[in-house]
Amino acid sequence: MRKFTGKYFGQAWADLTQDKRWWQPLLILTLVSCIPIIGSITAWGYFYDWAKEASWGLNRPFPRKVGDAGKRIKYGFFALLISWVWVLPFSIVASLVNNIPFVGSLLYFLLTLCGLAAGAVAQAAILRALTYERLSPGFDFKRIVGMARRDTNGLVRCWLISFVGGLIIAAIACVVLIPSVILPMVAVTGSMGSMGDMGMQYYYNDSFSDMSYYGAELRPIVMALLGALPILLVVGFVLSFFGTIVGALSTRAYGYWFGQFMPNTWGRAEDPMPFERMATPGATGAYGAYGAGQQAPYGAQGQQAPY
């Protein structure tokens, strides 16, 4: 067991790269993510399974084998559903108040910030549900908010991994796509004048079943799109691969953050958590009464290690 250093990104990166071929399973997961809906659910299931290991103090590298794919899909589904429950209400209300005169924009901004905060707290909810292998513990709102309040600083540090990673990916996309795709497209369309001067004509026959289209000026646009398609595919896949890396790192970091609550010592979901039973809680961001980088023996409270 590697001692936890308190540096979430550094610890997650060390765990991810301890295998020389660490990039191979992430590349495969990127390909899997291309499958609509189920692909992303499967990928996130692998991430949270690895995060659950971190919360139990296990420091094995990212899994290279398929293993129990059914369990990973279940974990990914749990993560998706719990995230929706925690975040979606803020998004819905924000969209409704956005059109209110004078204060709509301000309320939208505030609710968006609340949604971001809820997304971070939802990580604790997801890991709590996965600890019990049931959805309901992930909706114990009072207790989960209490966990977030106990170490808000650590939770924010974990959230920043995904936030900064997303900004970097967006910056790379702009640097690559603007000169190679967007500017050429703008040049092509700009040289053709307004849509009203493009000579597009439509006519219908008496049965309204036939339509002919004239407008040879559209050919440069079509050719530009076809020419940019390979670039878009390659850049999109590379950025998706970087996104997979960020997802693995952020969820692993959340797992380390969650470990301070000693999930390996938990009893039933309704029982008080270790920090709730302690008269003098341990240091914030460490591992409770067992000290930084330490864990209670596996099997406490009748639980078993995740593997």
Describe this structure in words.
- 62% of the residues lie in helices and 3% in strands.
- It has helices at residues 8-16, 23-33, 38-55, 69-97, 104-132, 141-150, 152-190, 219-259, 274-277; strands spanning 201-204, 211-214.
- Strand 1 (201-204) and strand 2 form a beta hairpin.
- Helix 3 crosses helix 5 (104-132), helix 3 (38-55) runs parallel beside helix 8 and helix 5 packs across helix 6.
- The protein is globular and about 70 Å long.
User: Residue-averaged pLDDT, rounded?
Assistant: 81
Structural class: mainly alpha
Placed side by side, the strands forming the largest sheet appear as 1-2
What percentage of the residues does DSSP assign to strands (E)?
under 5%
Number of strands: 2
Radius of gyration: 25 Å
So what's the overall shape?
A: globular
Quick one: biggest sheet? 2 strands, antiparallel
User: How far apart lie the N and C ends?
Assistant: 14 Å
Secondary structure layout plus pairing:
Layout: H1 8-16, H2 23-33, H3 38-55, H4 69-97, H5 104-132, H6 141-150, H7 152-190, E1 201-204, E2 211-214, H8 219-259, H9 274-277
Antiparallel strand pairs: 1-2
